[in-house]
């Protein structure tokens, strides 16, 4: 049986890859993909802990389903924003979009 | 609390008493909202009709009270209710308020009709009738109120309308200065009223007349004195008594019907009404009554001496009003509130008539108010002349005109109550009064015209103005004898007694002997005749010649012409002093109060200006901040879990 630590390690690596991607990439579509990566890293951690808890507690697995739904919604909204951004000005580079400056 | 106590017989009109102020209020709203654009000169008739309707209802209420409903409270709704303390929008209908309602509405109706003619060529016609209607509404609230708080609403309302109407011709500087002066002086009086009202509440826990008067004995003498003197300060402001009288002569800058209605017949009597209404309080505070009597008598003679030397016809009448109000307070002070209210009623008629007559003269003389430019007008204005002659006779207290009966009672009351010195002052004032009336009448209507150009164009006023004069003249002639005969026991006495009865002190009213009454009456009539004779001798036969007298009197004459320098004193000593003090307060307000407020605003702007740089608009920065925040949280949680913070 694979130890819990391995799951958590993979989850952490995935999560920080996502964080790094969000911070360094400028393509909005890639940023969205990295956000997905972070969400799925979390999912992995959740199911791992849920399985560790065994028969006593299935809430971790249930929570993952919620994260799926939220992630799907987030992608839908995010891609819609990216699409309308691209229609208004032909770029998906987030550094070039800073009209909301204070 | 009880909506109606002891309804003896049918009291239909008393239950409708709230319609009386409703009519002028409706006229105010209609004229104010639609007057200027659509109604034009119809506003005058709308207002007059509304007040006439109120007058009819007032007569009905009066008859109901006459039938024996001497104390009815008609509650419209509960205004303030906090625990045991309750103030209602309620009317107290008793003989005193019904007489006031009658006087106010009847005199108002006549003056409204007159104003339609007088103001016909004024471009502010709708505005005039709007404010005048509002005034009548406020005055009716004042006299109907069953508690000091509601009375204060009317009290402030009439003050506001007085201000608006004195400054009616605000294009010129004098009226608005006069309006401001009237307002400020009235504020000083209102301060006294407020003190009295609040003290009443603290001492009695109620502001309702009936409840307060029933429990006069729970108050200490000091409390009663404070309440009465504070209310009297309010009365001196509203009723133009020493030392707050000097706004009233200046108030003559307003249109003449305003002077007649507000500054002679109704509003200025509010102070008299207040003291008369509070008779049970004042009766229990004897020193306060003495103060009222002395101030009244001093004001009477003080104003009468100034009236001797004025040349502006309206100013003569204004000082005369101050003087007559002084008589009313004298009556209140010597324990004769009925005589005071009686004089209030007769004075409302004859002084309104004198003012309206003056207005008719001014109207016919193209706005000239200086009596030195008049003369001989009786041939041109017969109706004005004869009605004013009757009113002048009433003011000089010539029997059987109205003024005789009421003034005789006041002076008689001063004698019988043992105030001999005040009686002497009253008699001297009566001589002075008769003299200045004679002087004014002679300079205006008799002798040779002194300004031929004005005289040639002079004309009698239209019927809409002369008919009210005639109606008021009828009241001036008959009112006194009808309600005031026999003296001290006439109809007005039996009628008003329930209102001014003092609990526990009734029954020992001893009427003076008939010989005393006759002797006192003879003296006061004699005083009037002496005054008239001196006036006639000086102005008809020039023995002694008026100008020679004024030269001989020298400094005294100058003092009188300058109105005892009171205005200068107020301006130089008090107004300048206050202006200096207010300059300091102004600086404090601008620099400290406003400085704090503006400083807070500037601080927020500064903080915002700094924080706004955080909003770069670059997504990467936001993402970085989110991650940085997350790290901080993790580090903090880690520290917490490791016990770094709890150690």
How would you describe this protein?
The complex is a heterodimer of chains A (102) and B (647). Chain A is mainly α and 102 residues long. Chain A is built from 3 helices and no strands. Chain B contains 27 helices and 2 strands. Chain B has a two-stranded antiparallel sheet with strand order 1-2. In chain B, a hairpin with a 2-residue loop joins strand 1 and strand 2. Chain B is globular, with a radius of gyration of 30 Å. Chain B starts with 11 loop residues before the first helix and ends in a 6-residue tail after the last helix. The N terminus of chain B is likely disordered. The chains are: A mainly alpha (102), B mainly alpha (647). Chains A and B meet through helix 1 of A and helix 27 of B.
Q: Separation of termini of chain A?
A: 54 Å
* Biggest interface and residues each: A-B, 14 and 13 residues
Number of helices of chain A: 3
Topology of chain A as a string of helices (H) and strands (E): HHH
Number of helices of chain B: 27
User: How many beta strands in the DSSP annotation of chain B?
Assistant: 2
Strand order of the largest sheet of chain B: 1-2
**Spans of at least 5 consecutive residues with low confidence of chain A:** none
Shape of chain A: elongated
What string gives the helices and strands of chain B in order?
A: HHHEEHHHHHHHHHHHHHHHHHHHHHHHH
Low-confidence stretches of chain B: 1-8, 504-508
Q: State the share of residues found in helices of chain B, binned by percent.
A: over 70%
Beta-strand portion of chain A reads under 5%
Describe the main β-sheet of chain A briefly.
none
Q: Sheet bearing the most strands of chain B, described? A: 2 strands, antiparallel
Q: Tell me the total number of β-strands of chain A.
A: 0
Q: Write down the Rg of chain A.
A: 17 Å
Fraction in helix of chain A: over 70%
Q: Distance N terminus to C terminus of chain B? A: 69 Å
